[in-house]
Design goal:
Layout: H1 8-20, H2 23-30, H3 34-48, E1 53-54, E2 63-64, H4 66-75, H5 78-92, E3 96-101, H6 103-120, E4 125-130, H7 135-140, E5 146-149, E6 158-166, E7 168-173, H8 185-189, E8 195-197, H9 202-213, E9 222-224, H10 227-235, E10 241-244, E11 255-259, E12 266-273, H11 280-298
Parallel strand pairs: 3-4, 3-5, 8-9
Antiparallel strand pairs: 1-2, 5-12, 6-12, 7-10, 7-11
Helix pairs in contact: 1-2, 1-3, 1-4, 2-3, 6-11
Length: 305
């Protein structure tokens, strides 16, 4: 006779009990009776043939045994994300992948990625959250399944794979005239207004580091949320900015750029909730992102949509 396996219900009950530390708190969280929670734990212990909790008579708090601690550490914190993912699938009643991506990446790269993805997975919904910050928190909280980011977060709940890298350029209004040689660019922009990303964004930090290392202590005139918005401000002749090289394309008439070859390339990562790393649709999405990113990094940028 096959050995019984723990059900999701039993594991969920144990997780909430271990997380809250009391039967009464777990009962309220799960909308179960005190006795039902106790029965679930007893049944899970029987299936696993291990004592998981210690609860002394009259004590309000429980403690975990060594085996219980191991099980809880395996589940935490990814179990909450898995439950949120299940809830989302049930609520939508269809396959959905929720993607957190900076707006600039979405506008420049994702139209082609979406076309390829829908050819293979026409019944999936792709739900995009255009964000540049707090992306890892969105995955950790179960709000998105996949993210594109210039940051490597080192979070155990998040699996990240390198997509590639891109170079940065100094972008300025075409009305400023013919650019100087690259080595004179910083001196040329001294005293001119600076447009950059909002605080906390990787490109803002890289731009400040680049300018300060070259003796330029500068205060932004305008801070905005995306590379697309930075470029729009430059087109309006509000100032210069430091942007991905693919932000400026040959057809641009209102902005020009100077390559910053001595500035290190920016790495970009594809991240996903760890339990989804073997999902075929997510794997296909990663491969499409990788192909499109490599193409965009070596080709002139497309016109903005």
């Amino acid at each position: 006779m096959a050995k019984p396996k723990p059900s999701l219900t039993l594991v969920q009950t144990f997780y909430h009990l271990a997380k809250s530390g009391s039967f009464s708190a777990a009962s309220r969280e799960l909308n179960l009776s005190y006795q039902s929670v106790a029965n679930h734990i007893r049944r899970l212990e029987q299936i696993l043939e291990s004592k998981l909790i210690v609860s002394e008579q009259g004590a309000k708090r429980i403690s975990l045994t060594p085996k219980g601690t191991i099980l809880f550490n395996i589940l935490n914190p990814e179990f909450d994300v898995m439950l949120e993912r299940i809830k989302t699938l049930i609520d939508n009643q269809r396959a959905v992948i929720r993607i957190g991506v900076p707006q600039g990446f979405f506008l420049h790269m994702f139209p082609n990625i979406i076309s390829r993805f829908r050819t293979k997975y026409p019944d999936y919904e792709l739900a995009f959250y255009e964000r540049d910050t707090a992306l890892s928190d969105l995955v950790r909280n179960g709000d998105v399944d996949v993210l594109i980011s210039e940051r490597y977060f080192g979070d155990p709940i998040l699996t990240q794979r390198l997509l590639g890298n891109y170079k940065l350029s100094l972008v300025y209004p075409a009305s400023w005239g013919v650019p100087p040689p690259q080595e004179d660019a910083v001196e040329w922009i001294k005293g001119r207004p600076f447009i950059t990303h909002e605080p906390g964004q990787t490109l803002r930090n890289l731009a400040f580091d680049f300018l300060k290392l070259r003796g330029l202590d500068i205060t932004p005139l305008i801070s905005v949320s995306s590379s697309t918005s930075v470029k729009r401000c430059i087109e309006k002749e509000f100032g210069f900015g430091i942007l991905p090289a693919w932000s400026v394309h040959p057809g641009d008439t209102r902005v020009l750029s100077i390559d910053l070859d001595d500035l290190a390339a920016v790495q970009v990562y594809f991240g996903m909730a760890s339990f989804m790393q073997d999902d075929p649709a997510v794997t296909h999405l990663y491969q499409s992102c990788q192909n499109e990113f490599m193409e965009a990094a070596r080709s002139p940028a497309r016109p903005d949509g």
